[in-house]
What we know:
By secondary structure, the chain is of the alpha/beta class. Helix content is 46%, strand content 12%. The chain has one domain: Alpha-Beta Barrel (TIM Barrel). The chain contains twelve helices and 13 strands. The radius of gyration is 20 Å and the shape is globular.
Amino acid sequence: MARHLVLAALILFTLAGAAKAQYKCVIIDAHSQFGCEISASRVRQAIIGNDIAHTLLSARGCRGEEALTSHHRVLKLVQSLEGRASFLISTKLAGMSQSGAESGKKGSLELSRANKQFFEASVGLAEVLVQHAPHETKQLRFDGLHLDLKSTRIQDAMSLAIDRKVPLILHLELNDNEAKSSQMLEQLRHVLSENPQHDVVLIHIAQATPEEAWSLIESHGNMHFMTSTADALAAFAVAWARSGKPKAQAGWVNLLADPPKPNPYNGWLADYLPTTKWNDDWKKLIKGHPERFVYAVENVFGPHWTRHYPVKLKIWRRAFSLLSEKAAKMVACANAKHLWKLDVAC
């Protein structure tokens, strides 16, 4: 009899574990982009086919396309998704992502125009690009951008977000700009302290260390982190960048355990998923402050929407199953719903 009870308990434990591993929380992708190398119908199909409840979409510029046209293109896609997406005004078109004072002036002017024309149709502003390592791959050739939070164009974009009372999303790369990381963190703390009622979100975790993130969260109640480009795929990208094959960011952090080595091989995901776990330091921080983390896929290029999307979601659905149900719900859905005032049932 005792053996039967033990066996029954083991079966129940196994079934509970399987259910937890398959836990499907409602997911909001708080930041992805739509460019011209993939069609609107493919993006729409990807969002619906991967069962994403809601996506915040912004424009990637296309060669020869006017900034306002880029916004129109994305807004049309958002409207076609009939409640499964919201529109963010891009803050990196028409010079905003290019070096030089003249480019900054042009970018600020176009951002002002976009604000006047599209703000009522939006839920806020997309990421403000402050730092970006040089990039040279098949998808993007970019000389890089190295500004700080006192740059005129960045001040213009931050002021717009603050005036409009929408979350301020900043793209910082602390590891890829290590020499300026202390200065950037000091400037960031000033922005947070000067605007204590305004929510600030660092996309891609800003390549911060757990210690830096913990310090910012403990000191500032308006500090949030977006989990985009902070998983196993990011770790593969870092290894690839450090090998010298492409020119790209090499400072991404991985919130989870490292994937198998070397770079991706056929079947690596099947090996990785059963062993997936959180990095202990990050899990401790998320467990203590689940309200400060926002999930984002951050699809940018065509392959992100096609090949990478289902892989990333399998990893994150597994990762969410390893958190408490409350924490998973907050990171995957509720925090984005609150920050951008979305009509989504989490």
